Sequence to fold (376 residues):
Amino acid sequence: MHSETEILIIGGGLAGLTAALHLNKLGLTVILIEKDAYPHHKVCGEYISNEVLPYFEWLGLSIENLEPTFISDLLFTSLSDKSMQTKLPLGGFGLSRYTIDHYLYTELIKRNIRVIHERVLQINFANDQFTVATANSTYAAPYVIGAYGKRSAIDVKLNRKFIHKQSPYLAVKAHYQADYPNHVVSLHNFEGGYCGVSKVENDRLNICYLANYESFKKHKNMLSYQENILYKNIHLKNIFENAESLFETPLTISQISFEAKEPVDQHILMIGDTAGLIHPLCGNGMAMAIHSAKIVSTLLEQVIKGKITSRSVLEQHYTTAWNREFKTRLKMGRLLAALLKNNKLESFAMNALNKMPFLLNQIIKQTHGKPITIPQ
Fold:
């Protein structure tokens, strides 16, 4: 079967689903291809900054109906048993990917946006047109948005630069039942990694940590790793020992790369984690994914209206806009991760922050954006 559309989106995570809703609101024809069925869990910190709320309202989305947990404070703890807590400038909310992705998907279906549940096998670009092949069909479109996540076989096929570099990281996530303050998202440093903890809907506690793979594989199983490495942070030890897992087994993902990526690659407009992955300790990857969908959709509207007259100009505008909004955040994430790896530097930083607590708010501002403005 062969289908044609104005815009094809590969990947149905937060970024891809949001872009589909935005483009559909503009009256454009969209096909979204996502290999997995909804709902499903994903490895994710599941905290979203309130910067997305004006944009969601414009899209006609009612997040409050999903009963998110409202978050106002950030708690940071170090391996040396020091801690700091501060108000988040904008605040945020906790929602599982299981719930929010499924909600956005149901909105696509309500709005008659076509969703194809197949795996993309090939992407070709010739004569100013894309042809995308799955096992059962081919799809043609003048524009393709890449929203397929952190790492994919598609990256291998596209021969993207970052895919050839081994990454030392893996991530682990599960939901728990535990007594934990609803209004706090906490970040806990441990040897070789860090862990995010916060409530999502239905009073569930999401615990997601990034670990060094070489350290991880030295232990016979995940529980042994947690007890011997994570528990050295007394705050994490207390959380885990008083929490009951709601998953049969935690979700894991390996080869997580924080290498710089290109927001446009072989004429594909990349959004969300496909364009660049911020270190989880910055706690703002979900909002960035949503914001990138808004940026690319606004520029594609200008193409359709004739305000952008060539593909090269579109790609230049998107690269500039993406870098302006996110490049500094990604650099700050890499810098913080490098700092926290070093015990001496971590101790020095915690002492400085305790003496000058306003610095923590400045760091938060460097990794979070302003409320997303409504398209005019």
In short: The chain has one domain: 2-165+257-367. The radius of gyration is 21 Å.
